[in-house]
Design brief:
6 helices, 8-stranded mixed β-sheet, MoCF_Sase_C, 3-stranded antiparallel β-sheet, Benzoxazolinone_Detox_Enz, about 25% helix, about 210 residues, Pyrv_Knase-like_insert_dom_sf
């Protein structure tokens, strides 16, 4: 069972790379004590680009500490929890291998895996790595967005308990590979996931199929 390394909320930035919103909450920093997770998001966090972020199915974003270590080695600089813009930095929990629709109990909250993160220019600008969108996409381990099914409090050190998992077996990484890496050979495998995807993402995956 994995556990929460840290719970992170945003420090808002402005800058040339922040996109049309002109502000971004991608820079997230660990906080102490319990944090409330609700259907509308993470208490104390900031969502600046509400066109692309902040929907109910993006209430929280989770990313592996092991992936931060991978990118630290690749880029030659230390990345720490929160640097991928994640609310939940998880250790021992492979978020990209989570099944779409899988439900987690963390602390007193119940969260449901809804889909992969897609790299954007703001992410690339924040890390200041040329061609980072391409590098991140090729690596294919995007982390998982989460909906909050039962509001509750989460604290660093809480375990991640998988309480249900759909039988279709389609993972966050599978959906990412089909839609971002254009791996058409996955179409037959991914097709059964459509009912478990949020409507907006369902349409995108259906088009890729």
């Amino acid at each position: 069972m994995g556990y929460v390394e840290s719970v992170n909320v945003a420090v808002v930035w402005t800058g040339a790379w922040t996109g049309r919103a002109g502000r971004t909450g991608i820079d997230k920093r660990p906080v102490t004590g319990p944090v409330e997770f609700t259907g509308t998001g993470v208490t104390g966090d900031s969502v600046c680009d509400t066109k692309h972020h902040g929907a109910w199915y993006q209430a929280a974003y989770s990313f592996d500490v092991e992936e931060l270590r991978y990118w630290s080695a690749e880029l030659g600089r230390e990345l720490v929890p929160g640097n991928a813009g994640e609310n939940l930095s998880l250790t021992g929990q492979d978020t990209s291998a989570a099944v779409i629709g899988e439900r987690w109990r963390i602390g007193s909250a119940v969260l449901r895996v809804t889909g992969p993160r897609q790299p954007c220019r703001v992410f690339q600008g924040f890390w200041d790595v040329e061609q980072f969108i391409k590098l991140f996409t090729e690596h294919g381990r995007p982390g998982a967005y989460l909906a909050v099914e039962e509001a509750g409090r989460i604290t660093a050190g809480d375990g991640v308990e998988v309480i249900s998992r759909p039988e279709h077996g389609v993972t966050v990484g599978d959906v990412f590979a089909l839609t971002m890496q254009r791996r058409g050979e996955l179409s037959e495998h991914v097709a059964p996931v459509l009912p478990d995807l949020p409507e907006k993402w369902r349409a995108k995956v259906a088009k890729a199929l």
